[in-house]
Amino acid sequence: MKWLRAAASEVIGLFVGDWVQSGVSVAILAAAWLALPRLHVEGVAYVLAVALAVQLILATAAEARRKKA
Amino acid sequence: MGAQLLTFGAAFLGSAVESVEALTIVLAVGLTRGWRAPLLGTLSALGLLALLVAIFGQLIVTRVPELTLKLIIGTLIVLFGLRWLHKAVLRSAGVIAMHDENRAYAQTVESLRADHEKTDWIGFTLALKGVFLEGLEVVFIVIAVGGTSGGMGVAVAGGLLAMLVVAIAGVIIRRPLAQVPENTLKYAVGIILTSVGTFWAAEGMGVSWPLDFVSIVGLAALYFLASRVAIGLIRRPAFA
Known about the structure:
The complex is a heterodimer.
Chain A: H1 2-15, H2 19-35, H3 45-68
Helix pairs in contact in A: 2-3
Chain B: H1 2-33, H2 36-63, H3 66-92, H4 101-114, H5 121-149, H6 152-173, H7 182-204, H8 215-235
């Protein structure tokens, strides 16, 4: 049981470093999934990329601030 | 051709980074306690990893509808890539320490010396665990980039070639590959994977990209720019 739990946490750890950041990323992807296919605009997919990029900046800055405090 | 090259490159670079880390563990165990047990552990881990690629690779390619596959794998690659990129930004900004193979090697050797009276089971387990855990990331990268682009063979070849190159380098120099710019490689692979993941996830949502596969270059530029902005922001003296 202990071994299984350790293996599961290793697998989850491949994708999740910070639960909040991963949660926000999934929320952005889910919102894009709901909204983007309805907007028939050329290049709208870049909205998803920009949102993820902004999220990266904010999440790393927040973690750096936490670590420096 | 471009897509296949990208698949090969992502699998090769991702596998090379993880193989360097696995090699450090195997070298530390082998040079401290002898080679038999760690080599057996390494071979067992490689066998398990090959089994995972065969089972999940086949299942994913044959059973999951294309759009669903792109959405799920794309999402997972985005999460995986962002995790690497997040760490690379913090390392580049000096918030967390750079990964140092020499230090990792010294720590493993020290812990093994303390346990020297125990049986060689430790050497076997350490090598097995080290290679398997580092290899899990390789398996994911290979299945993800190979499964979504339809180039599983190319991805497997990239992963295997990287492991082979690192193993040969390890046999020749018999020291951790501390000169490999591991942090830079992880930074680059983080950008590539996040870009590829975003591309596949959006395609899985039913959205098309203006220049099809070439858009990945634009995505990589965007994520690189975002990471530089983050590093610049964190490095500012007024930042706290």
